[in-house]
Amino acid sequence: MLGISRVAVFKKIKKGEIQAIKAGRNYLIYNEDTTGGNTGKNIEKSVNRVVREYGEAIKLLGDE
Question: Assign residue 5 a region: left if phi > 0, alpha if psi is -120 to 50, beta otherwise?
Answer without folding.
Answer: beta
